[in-house]
Amino acid sequence: MNNTRTSGLPPSLPPLVISSRDMSRLEALLDTPVLRRHPAALALMDELNRADVRAPEDMPGNVVTMHSRVECEDELTGEHHRLTLVYPHEANVETGLVSVLAPVGSALLGLSVGQTIDWQASGNRSLRLRVTAIDYQPEASGDLHR
Fold first, then answer.
1. Is 88 within the bounds of a domain?
2. Is this prediction's pTM over 0.70?
3. Do the domain assignments include residue 144?
C-alpha cells in the first residue's frame, strides 16, 4: 500500500477518513460565495468527495481531523514541525495554526500516523511531510461537540 499522498492523485486512492461533523462544517465553508470558485476550495472539495465519512465517536484516534495537533517530519531535510489543522479564520502560520485551505492543510486532513504527503512550499521548495504523532485529536479526547 502506498502511504504517500500528493496533489492531483488518481481517484483510485483509498478514501480519506473524516468525521461527519468536519464534513458538514467544511461543506458549509466551501459553499460560501467567496470560496465557491477558489482553487484551494475546489481542491479541498475534491478530497471531501472521496472521503469515508464517520460519526465523530467512530473516528480512529490516529487520523488527522480538524483541530488536531500533529507532529510531522520533513523526510527530505529532517526538520520537525508541530501543526494544528484549523479553519481559515483561525489560521496563524507563525504559531503553527495551518488553514485547511492551505495546500499542506488540505493534504493533512484525513492522514494517519505514518503516512506522508508531498507538497510544494513557497519558493518552489519540495517537502515530504510524514505524520509522526497526533498530540491531540478532538474526537479521541472526547471533544465531540467543539
1. yes
2. yes
3. no
Q: What 3-state DSSP class applies to 144?
A: coil
The answer on pLDDT for 110 being more than 60 is yes
The domain that contains 123 carries what CATH number? 3.10.50.30
Does residue 142 belong to any structural domain of this protein?
no
Does any domain span residue 6? no
pLDDT of 123 strictly over 80: no
Q: What is the mean pLDDT of the chain?
A: 84
For the chain, give the secondary structure using H, E and C: CCCEECCCCCCCCCCCEEEHHHHHHHHHHHCCCCCCCCHHHHHHHHHHHCCEEECHHHCCCCECCCCCEEEEEECCCCCEEEEEEECHHHCEHHHCEEECCCHHHHHHCCCECCCEEEEEEHHHEEEEEEEEEEEECCCCCCCCCC
Look up the domain containing 59 and give its range: 15-136
